[in-house]
Amino acid sequence: MQWETVIGLEIHAQLSTRSKIFSGSATTFGAAPNTQASLLDLAMPGTLPVLNAEAVRMACLFGLAIDAEIGAKNVFARKNYFYPDLPKGYQTSQMDHPIVGKGHLDIALEDGTIKRIGITRAHLEEDAGKSLHEDFHGMSGIDLNRAGTPLLEIVSEPDIRSAKEAVAYVKSIHALVRYLGICDGNMAEGSLRCDCNVSVRPKGQAAFGTRAEIKNVNSFRFIEKAINHEVQRQIDLIEDGSKVIQETRLYDPNKDETRSMRSKEEANDYRYFPCPDLLPVTIEHNYLQQLRSELPELPAQKCERFESQFGLSAYDASVLSASREMANYFEQVQRVCDDAKLAANWVMVELASLLNKDGLEIEQSPVSAEQLGDMILRIKDSTISGKIAKMVFEAMAAGEGSADEIIEKKGLKQVTDSSAIEAMLDEVLAANAAQVEQYRSSDEAKRGKMFGFFVGQAMKASKGKANPQQVNELLKHKLEG
Amino acid sequence: MHELTLAEIARALAGKRFSAEELATTLLERIRQLDPQLNSFITVTADQALEQARAADTRRAAGDTGVLLGAPIAHKDLFCTKGVRTSCASKILDNFVSPYDATVVEKLAAAGTVSLGKLNMDEFAMGSASESSYYGAVKNPWDISRVPGGSSGGSAAAVAARLIPAATATDTGGSIRQPAALTGLTGIKPTYGRVSRWGMIAYASSLDQGGPLARTAEDCALLLGGMAGFDTKDSTSIDQPLDDYLAALAKPLTGLRIGLPQEYFGAGLDNRIADKVMAVVEELKKLGATIKEISLPNMQHAIPAYYVIAPAEASSNLSRFDGVRFGYRCENPTDLTDLYKRSRAEGFGAEVKRRIMVGTYALSAGYYDAYYLKAQKIRRLIKDDFSAAFKDVDLILGPTTPNLAWKLGEKNADPVSAYLEDIYTITANLAGIPGLSMPAGFIDGLPVGVQLLAPYFQEARLLNVAHQYQQVTDWHRQAPNGF
């Protein structure tokens, strides 16, 4: 049977406010345990929450960016359950009246098509603390530094049809929240986490299958693997004649499998009700207008502009606009060298592979945008060839100086003196006399192939420094002649 | 000294007739001698009190003329007091020493009051008899075989017995006004949001409100002036200028329109109390008031609505008492669930558990709409009743309680009969309006209270009417025998 995968995602984005959503404690990651826990974060009797206006501003920015309705009146609710890292015995969240209502986000698929993913809602809530089960001699430790950190929970419609689409969607959300400056997107530190609701159904069936929710997946790679694994598990189950049960599962990246955490029957009754300690928040029209005017250029707009302004392909434009840092870097290179296509190629190929190799983010790049732009200028004015440029680039990455310094120091300046090139070519042809004979007696098709051999020999002889165009022309002349 | 009201004490201290230290010493001695009969204090903070008293005397000597400077008070034991046990009269907080001061405590300390200790109450303020305390029942000074009302019974008994001139208290369904009525005191529950709830351990957050218990309206005005005000730490606190409660006391009552709701005089009300209420009405007429019969048609739904909303909020508010970070923890828990279950089962008393269970049930999936949402709708109707009534009248007057103080243990077997004692007071909490109870005479030697209700933020009006009434009566000057 042909199966169709149906996926909806809940993404928790930690908002990068300086203090917590309901208390004045700092939100810095990695502080010593419980040093960022105030009376309120400890749920001391008698303490009361006060809403952080910055969290509201950030949620509104997100709402505007996904073209959503923003609740004129939104209400905080208590989600009641007992757990040691939830000090109040309830999580303050939003239920019936979330701050961000229905919206959507367009994502670029690998084949270049654009797909619109519906966003059901996004609501504000507080994060829980952390339970630590190691190093306490059979007891558990609790760190409440994270308790009360503001989260925006972004809930998608079940519009996603494959693990790859899911990853593309999460990447788009990731880019968006970073563009907006509302979340640092650091998935390793848990700043962006994802719950994946996955089900399968026979292709063509309208009704959804029973879904399982995979909790807290925290990397793009794991999202793809966890979903693929879960889809296969569900298909196997159904094809073996059993049923998928509605449950919460955990993905174990070490074993690459999901396992059951709790079933629907074991699920808590959270007894949501409006939090009586917090008043409903009214968002005024003028406030939203003001925020709208402060919105930065968003990924989709930037992508479009890269296509129209620079003539880039849709794919290149989408890669280069994927993050604000990447886009800024590219635009800076482009400004220096005034050649968008060369700039795009160098950023997407050589720079990307360099960063990838060392596991660096673009803002940590050892080669600055100015350096790269200057180097491209040297390609454009024929000081170096593209091939030599790769050596220069590597040297820049190793911290050996600017392109000009490296070209000078290493004597990489391209040879454009025709007589020098001719002399060098004569030597090459003399050393390969047999091949020259063969060439001259071959037909056009075969000659084409052999020509490359002579170019290669010539470039090798010049240590790559001969101007390739001149080599081509002169070589053709000599062989034909 | 102990017979003086707060206002008289303020004048005596200003006139240097005695020092704050002498006064505190006298009252601490009285508490030591007399409180064993009443059990009104959970904790007496003698050293701290004397220190505060000496500091007040020093401030006065330096020229400070603050009206509450050196005034001896005590706090209901649900106001957090830094470095002092704050128990909520519960075993679960028996070992809890608060690391911070409630806003009310902080404000009153800054004004120079001298806190003699922490007052007994119903456990977590749940009750109307002050019998559910982990530290034992509080007795009514007018008859120590009877209850003082609740939940602020310790505050009421201590003030009625002249152990202290005034006390802080809180009112969620009548917990200031009902004990005031049963012990012959004046007590005011301010508008919801008038007094900060920061540091006031929550029972039902949308209903809880702090206020003063004292012998006279003037004393309530004095103490409320020190307690009330906007607080950025409480999101439900309201940023509205504070009236000068003392200055408003003298206003004549000419033209005052008083409404008598017919529903307050129906079945269930002790006829002798009804007569006392009507006698108050006659007095107020003489002072210039006019009387109008009104109706608050949804009052009958108030108790059921309250007993859904308050327990629902309580079930969530009390979740933090889990044996993990502070308070009581059971011995040798076998695992996390055991820790939770036994710490809470052993730490909470019967009435608290009853309300947690009722509230949990009311919020459960499938019942929420039928209970919690329905109760919220009733709450809206009750608010609307008051808004409509206050179009025609300035104040609403009626009995504070349907019955006199009952015998200790009398209503233990039937909690609902105790719940019904709050029938006249609960509506003010549901609507958020201010209410005051003042002494209106005695029946068989037991005090009777009359309740006044006013529109939002008209505390000054309530205090003014009570004060004018107290200028022509002396019920508030009576003292119980033996105290």
Automatic annotation (TrEMBL), chain A:
E.C. numbers: 6.3.5.-
Cited InterPro entries: Asn/Gln-tRNA_amidoTrfase_suB/E (IPR017959), Asn/Gln-tRNA_Trfase_suB/E_cat (IPR006075), Asn/Gln_amidotransferase (IPR018027), Asn/Gln_tRNA_amidoTrase-B-like (IPR003789), GatB (IPR004413), GatB_C_1 (IPR042114), GatB_Yqey_C_2 (IPR023168), Gln-tRNA_amidoTrfase_suB_CS (IPR017958)
Domain Asn/Gln amidotransferase: 328-479
Pfam families, sorted: GatB_N, GatB_Yqey
UniProt-listed SUPFAM superfamilies: GatB/YqeY motif (SSF89095), Glutamine synthetase/guanido kinase (SSF55931)
Catalysed reactions, as listed in the record: L-aspartyl-tRNA(Asn) + L-glutamine + ATP + H2O = L-asparaginyl-tRNA(Asn) + L-glutamate + ADP + phosphate + 2 H(+); L-glutamyl-tRNA(Gln) + L-glutamine + ATP + H2O = L-glutaminyl-tRNA(Gln) + L-glutamate + ADP + phosphate + H(+)
Gene3D superfamilies: 1.10.10.410, GatB domain, N-terminal subdomain (1.10.150.380)
Top EC group: ligase
GO biological process, one term: translation
UniProt entry keywords in alphabetical sequence: ATP-binding, Ligase, Nucleotide-binding, Protein biosynthesis, Transferase
Recorded GO MF terms: ATP binding; glutaminyl-tRNA synthase (glutamine-hydrolyzing) activity; transferase activity
Family designation: Belongs to the GatB/GatE family. GatB subfamily.
Subunit-level organization: Heterotrimer of A, B and C subunits.
Biological role stated in the UniProt entry: Allows the formation of correctly charged Asn-tRNA(Asn) or Gln-tRNA(Gln) through the transamidation of misacylated Asp-tRNA(Asn) or Glu-tRNA(Gln) in organisms which lack either or both of asparaginyl-tRNA or glutaminyl-tRNA synthetases. The reaction takes place in the presence of glutamine and ATP through an activated phospho-Asp-tRNA(Asn) or phospho-Glu-tRNA(Gln).
The protein's name: Aspartyl/glutamyl-tRNA(Asn/Gln) amidotransferase subunit B
TrEMBL record, chain B:
Subunit structure: Heterotrimer of A, B and C subunits.
Organism taxonomic ancestry: Bacteria, Pseudomonadati, Pseudomonadota, Gammaproteobacteria, Pseudomonadales
A Gene Ontology term for the protein's cellular component: glutamyl-tRNA(Gln) amidotransferase complex
One annotated GO biological process: translation
Reaction equation(s) it catalyzes: L-glutamyl-tRNA(Gln) + L-glutamine + ATP + H2O = L-glutaminyl-tRNA(Gln) + L-glutamate + ADP + phosphate + H(+)
EC nos: 6.3.5.7
Gene3D superfamilies: Amidase signature (AS) domain (3.90.1300.10)
InterPro entries listed in its UniProt record: Amidase, Amidase_CS, Amidase_dom, AS_sf, GatA
Residues annotated as the enzyme's active site: K76, S151, S175
The protein, known as: Glutamyl-tRNA(Gln) amidotransferase subunit A
A GO term, aspect molecular function: ATP binding
Primary enzyme class: ligase
Pfam families from the UniProt entry: Amidase
Residue span, Amidase domain: 22-463
Main function: Allows the formation of correctly charged Gln-tRNA(Gln) through the transamidation of misacylated Glu-tRNA(Gln) in organisms which lack glutaminyl-tRNA synthetase. The reaction takes place in the presence of glutamine and ATP through an activated gamma-phospho-Glu-tRNA(Gln).
Family indicated by similarity: Belongs to the amidase family. GatA subfamily.
Alphabetic keyword roster: ATP-binding, Ligase, Nucleotide-binding, Protein biosynthesis, Transferase
